[in-house]
Amino acid sequence: MYTSTPQDKPWTVPMLADAKRDGRKLVMLTAYDASFARTFDSAGTDLILVGDSLGMVVQGHDSTLPVTVADTVYHVACVARGLSKALLVADLPFQSDATPERALDAATALLQAGAAMVKLEGAGHKLDVIRFLVEREIPVCAHLGLTPQSVLRLGGYKVQGRDDATAGKLRADARAVAEAGAALLVLECVPTGLAQTITAELPIPTIGIGAGPHCDGQVLVQHDLLGVNSGHRRPKFVKDFLAEAGTIAGAVTAYASAVREGRFPDAAHSYD
Ligand code: KIV
């Protein structure tokens, strides 16, 4: 059984590896403003992500593609003012990481606004970007599986890695992003068994979203945790914790305990 106790000191990037080594599950939520960030932080959330999901749940777009670096910097600065312990991760928006130099400019702006780590989607040519950023003292979180910035190529938001070939590619990409220097890996919409294998193979923590219960941590989008209708289809892995808890702080505490105790996600919120 896992511990259900949140950490009492501010998170740093090296502590993520310590958590994996010690078998402590990481609890992550997205946030986009100072007040929700403060509520999530004081309810014991370990990591806050200013995701480019903000394009869909805050700005009302159909995808994350319209989000800009300026949009993200604005929300990172708002969220940073609400945090005292959680580690702040910020998404590099669509094509802001197309080259190492562009990624360095965008990541520098995000760190100067208050982020401690940037997240980017994919492997392939992004491996050079990861290496370039890490060599320049910018901590990186990778993101594999369903990568929403690839929605046009993928033709929709679909589970990834269901056959042997794509599962093998995902495993190889996961090893490659860790070798390139990523300190954390988000796995989105990946079958439970594949996410479990990747988690066991990697030295860095994995954070699942629709990737089953065996990842080293979990992330949910704020609006999904709170049952807010963002105008988009609700995927299978989403759970409205506010419905049972009754208060926002209670919903976060219930989510955090369920993650730390290995009760969320269950089979009903995961893919085979
Ligand atoms: O943009 C976002 O919120 C994300 C999470 C869904 C992991 O990337």
UniProtKB/TrEMBL annotation:
Annotated keywords: Cytoplasm, Magnesium, Metal-binding, Methyltransferase, Pantothenate biosynthesis, Transferase
**Cofactor(s) needed by this chain:** Mg(2+)
- The record's principal subcellular location, in a coarse class, is cytoplasm
* Annotated metabolic or biological route of this protein: Cofactor biosynthesis; (R)-pantothenate biosynthesis; (R)-pantoate from 3-methyl-2-oxobutanoate: step 1/2
According to the UniProt entry, where is the signal peptide? none
Which residues make up the binding site for 3-methyl-2-oxobutanoate?
52-53, 91, 119
* Protein origin, superkingdom: Bacteria
Identify this protein by name.
3-methyl-2-oxobutanoate hydroxymethyltransferase
Q: Which organism is it from?
A: Agrilutibacter terrestris
